[in-house]
Amino acid sequence: MTTARTATVAAVGGAGVAAFAVIRGLRRAAHGPADDHDERWLAVTVNRAPEEVGSAGSLPGPLARLGDEIELRIVPAAGDKGTELRARPAGTEVSRGDLRSALRKAKSLIETGIVLEADPPSAHPGPLGKVLRKVTRNAQKGGRL
């Protein structure tokens, strides 16, 4: 009985991994390439009026440091819900991950006055601690904005 139950769990687990891989592949195909030289715009919505956000010349440090290496648009968000900051790399000098991180930090600075950081990563010495530290380190450069 234990052997049959173990085999069933392994089969279900394997099917789950396979389904995840298929779904991930379909999502990538639908959204196109996501490499560092992608031409699509990245955007964040800031909970401030366009007048409060400023212009391209008076943005917070994370975006100001990127300067001429990015294209930047500041537009009112849909439904009068604040301001949308749209950016994309102007050349190959800035990676999309670095631009994502700069947009997140700029949003935080504009809305709160400080850059909000995640809790410190786990100090657990085992394999799970290593995984958590890596995920936390890479979190600012990926995921949803």
From TrEMBL:
Residues 118-145 are annotated as: Disordered. It comes from the Bacteria. This is Uncharacterized protein. It comes from Amycolatopsis regifaucium.
